[in-house]
Amino acid sequence: MNKINRRVLIKSLVSGSLGSYLAINSGVLNAFSSTDVSKSIWSKYDSSIVIDGLGGAFSLRQPVTQAALDAFKNSGISALNMTVPYPGDDYAETIKKIEKTKSIIEQNSTSLILIQSASDILKAKLEKKLGIIMGFQSTEMFDKSLSDISEFAKMGVKIMQVSYNGPSILGSGGLVKKDSGITSLGKRAIEVMESEKVLVDLSHSGKRTVSSAIEQAKRPVVISHTGCNAIYEHPRNNDDKELKAAADTGGLVGIYLMPFLEGGEHEIKADMVIKHILHAYKVCGEDHIAIGSDQGVVPVNDGPDYRESIRKEVARRIAAGISAPGETPHRPPFIPELNSERRMELIAYKLSQKGVPDRVVEKIIGKNWLRVFASVWN
């Protein structure tokens, strides 16, 4: 594995989540932190399709460094769903960020590829590139005509959420006290998304919004990054009923590596992530469970500068009303034991150590995403 010896300052926003925002904007590029990957090798990893259902890759304000490109290649990830606009970005800002994202991918075409189809992911794997799937986590870029959905789809946006943490014109986020379910406009939006072959994502949505959106959907839907309320109850996690309902559409559930998997302010251990994955596996079945890490590919160094970034970002999110309970400067928004660009391999290894068959591990770390993408996009 390549050793990254220099520290690289990466500023600015790139993702609609605290985890991937801070992972990319922490100020330090650091390989593997204290994780001893030599003890956690999964033999089938390098030959597997690996897909992260929600993650971050690069800043939109600075050139991608060679160190970051090396980390992408070494990660073994073939594709990830990268949030292009930040929650709150309007139509004009979203257009700019889509164009900038595509420009950065083109400028780094020897290492990056824009994903527009399931076959593009296979191409990314073959060419050892990181595939970028452009996605939305918010709805402020849409107007009531919903014509923007088709426009954004034609620009290459392949995944769209119906809400972030708060209320939206399409539904209610998980932090809304009175969730009225998917709105009439939201029902139309799902129809348009499906007709444009855009994957509908119900992450961050409230319970009634999730259930009513699934009732409306005719094609597979996903909850790309979440946890299991049966393990730890939190507004950003989902009940078994919701997880199973998403699976029953032919879609899947992605488990994240966020601080909402367990109570308290202590650092969360990798075994807690595995516990959530195994529970969702039991509820949804082997074809409907995956990973949506909500992390940047490049690992971070949890030092003083990083802690200050956490403090400022949590304060900003609270002031903006988009913070989720449990976001605190006392707990880093990542799993220290998985603080590696090859975190997906570490997860695969730990699952295999729990007795999960290799064929199922392959599904969890990528094949299930590939199946859903092929079903919806093609």
From TrEMBL:
InterPro entries attached to this UniProt entry: Metal_Hydrolase (IPR032466), Pept_M19 (IPR008257)
Source domain of life: Bacteria
Name recorded for this polypeptide: Dipeptidase
